[in-house]
């Protein structure tokens, strides 16, 4: 039976990452470093032989879209189908959006900000927890991405730390506590080989 390959990549550093701001659904551009991170990830994919994708997915935000564009250009696959959807957007940080993380700690208290950032199910005011983000991401995953993998397609996704965490939690059967402790480096591809039931056979991080 055919087996699909899935590659997940967190976008490169954005201008707001550089400034230590809560970004969420805001749309800052990639920094020069972010573009370099995306290119390095693409070079690692090419070196490892992952240059034959059938489709690609990304969010509605330019930092993820531009990361994907850099990757596809480097691996010579600019002509494949690309789907952009806000279901794959970063977690919405609500009232924290645009705040410097140090300033947020001063305003709301260090313990409270830590809970909002690192708990699974406690959202910041007006925003999403990782649990709520997963409830947005996973129906899209089940309806639009997983079926392609079960057909044996090779799928590339460039998205965000928390939308990718939602997918990783599902793929690896992680708990909420485990997934919030999972760090994803910017621009670094994670490769999953799946069987025809969608079970992970192999995982590689291309650093």
Automatic annotation (TrEMBL):
The reaction(s) this protein catalyses: (2R)-2-phosphoglycerate = (2R)-3-phosphoglycerate
Presence of keyword rRNA-binding: no
Active site: residue positions: 11, 90
EC number(s) reported in the record: 5.4.2.11
InterPro entries the record matches: His_Pase_superF_clade-1, His_PPase_superfam, PG/BPGM_mutase_AS, Phosphogly_mut1
SUPFAM superfamilies linked to this entry: Phosphoglycerate mutase-like (SSF53254)
Domain of life: Eukaryota
Signal peptide location: none
Pfam families xrefs: His_Phos_1 (PF00300)
GO biological process: glycolytic process
Residues that hold substrate according to the record: 10-17, 23-24, 63, 90-93, 101, 117-118, 161-162
Swiss-Prot/TrEMBL site (Transition state stabilizer) positions: 160
GO MF annotations in UniProt: phosphoglycerate mutase activity
Keyword terms, alphabetized: Glycolysis, Isomerase
Functional pathway: Carbohydrate degradation; glycolysis; pyruvate from D-glyceraldehyde 3-phosphate: step 3/5
Top class in the EC scheme: isomerase
NCBIfam families: pgm_1, PRK01295.1
Family: Belongs to the phosphoglycerate mutase family. BPG-dependent PGAM subfamily.
HAMAP family: PGAM_GpmA
Protein name as it appears in the record: Phosphoglycerate mutase
Organism: Tilletiopsis washingtonensis
Highest classification ranks of the organism: Eukaryota, Fungi, Dikarya, Basidiomycota, Ustilaginomycotina
